[in-house]
Amino acid sequence: SRWSSDVCSSGLWIIAVLSFIGIFFFHLPFPLIIAMAALYGYLTQRSAGDPPPHPKGANPLRTIAIWLVIWWAPVAVLWLSGAQFLTEIGLFFGKLAVVTFGGAYAVLAYMTQAAVVEHGWLSMPQMMDGLGLAETTPGPLILVTQFVAFIAGFGQHGLMMGVAAACLALWVTFVPCYLWIFTGAPYIEWIATRPRLRGALVAITAAVVGVILNLSLWFALHVFFADVAMVKHGPLTLFTPDISTIDWTVVTLALLSSVMILRFKLDLLLVLLIVALAGLGLSCF
């Protein structure tokens, strides 16, 4: 991909490797990894001379204030009314929306870590079903956040709570898009003239490559093996699969998918259709 090529060619692969090690083996929070990468990229770039003038007519503080009120008003009402679970859902997915650097797949790693391991809202098979559901349409982030929130709410108080949690997750995930657009759009060209800001963004891109690798390996382990133990050695966390629980059918389908995409360059939607039909057929026997 373009990302991985840029990272390898520029030597930023070290950041990607450290990012992968940090989140996979030490369970460092995704926001912390992004912040550390941004700080490194910012500090290792030389500052430019006199900064260019700020965009005329831009009033970022007012824009931020307006959209913050719109964004968090429903969560504030829920908090004041004592709806503890929905408030927790709003805070979690609102925080998720802030750290969407690198797109959906980077955020999925963080969401999986938090929703399954920390909060226990979903089981591992449910989370994998959510990822499979997300891949049926372009733009998986909104769909999978809805799924996670609904299952979390349904597990707490049934159907209505599931619907309420899903609607709230949609609101706090989607509304911040307007905040970023209306606040940041006037500054796009200005950021391009600031080497340190560019350096921070490039370093974040490198870190995201490692985070996506973590997501891929994490899901592969839990899809290929029915039993994966998480063993802690101090700050170090190791995932140890039970080799006897390997699902050779799933492994075979994964290998065939890789061959169809990498060797024969088949369209992704066609590959998904073929594998889905194959899985359906095999499940009937």
Describe the protein's topology:
Blueprint: H1 2-9, H2 13-25, H3 30-43, H4 60-80, H5 84-98, H6 104-118, H7 124-134, H8 140-157, H9 159-174, H10 176-184, H11 188-192, H12 195-224, E1 228-233, E2 236-241, H13 248-263, H14 268-283
Antiparallel strand pairs: 1-2
Low-confidence region ranges: none
The number of helices is 14
Q: Report the strand count.
A: 2
Strand content: under 5%
Offer a quick outline of the entry.
The chain has 285 residues and is mainly α. The protein contains 14 helices and 2 strands.
Structure description:
There is one protein chain. The protein is mostly helical. It has two domains: 2-222, no CATH class; 230-283, no CATH class. Helices cover 73% and strands 4% of the residues. It contains 14 helices and two strands; from the N terminus they run H-H-H-H-H-H-H-H-H-H-H-H-E-E-H-H. The chain has a two-stranded antiparallel sheet with strand order 1-2. Helix 4 (60-80) runs antiparallel to helix 10 (176-184), helix 8 runs antiparallel to helix 9 and helix 13 (248-263) runs antiparallel to helix 14 (268-283). The radius of gyration is 21 Å and the shape is globular.
